[in-house]
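Quick one, probably user error.
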């Protein structure tokens, strides 16, 4: 096996150690390690595959380690064993490559231990898999117990189980053809590795990453079909003045501009000024020229000049991300039950501060990538109860176990 392959395992372990110590997202760590180690596209894909398998199956891997090794392990050695066992029991990587290259990642003092555990994994593979099948549901599917209990109460046993199974599958890649580029749709349709998403115009499932030229020329934007629900409820029209209040990195802004045929006015804001350059770059690359970009924290009141200005407002608010845990591998381990309570207060405040910015007869779409009722319908209903001049026109909740897409919520409220 080439020396470069060793770097992939070392990079995976380095990323896991960095992830454990801080709040750096795994996607950023993959990019960082790929650049640091000058990984080829193939080796980067292997790195991502290993890291994804370890994070998705963390509890299960630790169960197997407990069966194979009694006694304490230092954090780095545990991560090395997670990487090795994930290759052997989850990814189907050749035994000799998984063992040899992973053992070499350890310090000399622990290489014998790592080698012994991985050799045992091979010898006991069938029994280890049988034991995993007998585990309690949240341990078998590597979710926190509190999430399993919460979802089982909200959705029932079978749907909660289906949700965890969904979260543990590799996320599919979807692209939306940019209707503002005249040749985009035909180019994508003619590509052999694209499949139209049934019932969703302009969206395609991709096999592998999109061709670089598509991104370079703004022909596509990578986004899940569930992102469209909020924009469809907003129903922006050419010539209107629209606010996308939590806009970065710009996926929903792009959908809005396409629906407006690039005619009218858009204001795209985000609370973090550091995200604005990427937002501007994405909008420009997609050929959107009706948008202005500004920094604003919507937990604070809006500037007076924005009051009564907008025909439509999209609020894609911060949330628990429970609808996108298939994609955001960090979320299930970072999220605590108390975080949902605290984010609800933020969501209510953002919605409250946006209300004065709508014109009479205007509309606001409140959206999340959450599947928690408390963050979704309950927030909107609470707002309506305190503001009788507003009413709910329509809402939509997408569930992974029902719609086979990311989970997402959107509600359109109207000002009388």
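Nope, works fine. Designed sequence:
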């Amino acid at each position: 096996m080439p020396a470069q392959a060793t770097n992939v395992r070392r990079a995976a372990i380095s990323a896991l150690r960095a992830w454990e110590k801080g709040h750096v997202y795994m996607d950023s760590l993959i990019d960082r390690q790929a650049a640091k180690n000058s990984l080829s596209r193939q080796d980067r894909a292997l790195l991502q595959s290993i890291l994804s398998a370890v994070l998705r199956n963390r509890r299960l891997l630790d169960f197997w380690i407990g069966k194979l090794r009694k006694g304490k392990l230092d954090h780095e050695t545990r991560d090395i064993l997670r990487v090795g066992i994930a290759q052997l029991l989850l990814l189907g990587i050749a035994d000799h490559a998984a063992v040899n290259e992973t053992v070499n990642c350890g310090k000399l003092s622990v290489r014998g231990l790592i080698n012994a555990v991985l050799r045992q994994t091979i010898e006991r593979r069938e029994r280890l898999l049988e034991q995993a099948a007998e585990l309690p549901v949240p341990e078998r599917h590597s979710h926190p117990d509190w999430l399993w209990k919460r979802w089982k109460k909200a959705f029932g046993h079978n749907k909660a189980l289906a949700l965890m199974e969904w979260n543990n599958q590799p996320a599919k890649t979807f692209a939306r053809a940019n209707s503002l580029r005249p040749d985009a749709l035909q180019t994508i349709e003619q590509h052999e590795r694209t499949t139209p998403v049934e019932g969703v115009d302009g969206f395609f499932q991709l096999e592998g990453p999109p061709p670089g030229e598509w991104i370079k020329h703004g022909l596509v934007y990578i986004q899940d079909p569930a992102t469209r629900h909020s924009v469809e409820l907003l129903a922006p029209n050419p010539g209107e003045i629209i606010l996308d209040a939590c806009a970065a990195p710009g996926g929903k802004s792009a959908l809005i501009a396409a629906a407006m045929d690039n005619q009218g006015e858009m204001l795209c804001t985000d609370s973090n000024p550091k995200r604005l350059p990427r937002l501007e770059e994405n909008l420009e690359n997609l050929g959107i020229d009706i948008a202005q970009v500004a920094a604003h924290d919507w937990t604070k009141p809006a500037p007076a000049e924005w009051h009564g200005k907008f025909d439509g407002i999209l609020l894609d608010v911060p949330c628990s991300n429970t609808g996108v845990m298939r994609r955001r591998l960090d979320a299930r381990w970072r999220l605590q039950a108390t975080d949902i309570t605290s984010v609800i207060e933020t969501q209510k405040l953002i919605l409250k501060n946006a209300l004065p910015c709508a014109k009479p007869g205007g509309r606001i779409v409140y959206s999340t990538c959450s599947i928690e009722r408390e963050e979704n319908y309950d927030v909107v209903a609470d707002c309506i109860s305190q503001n009788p001049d507003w009413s709910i026109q329509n809402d939509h909740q997408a569930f992974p176990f029902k719609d086979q897409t990311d989970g997402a919520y959107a509600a359109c409220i109207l000002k009388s």
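The longest helix spans residues 3-21.
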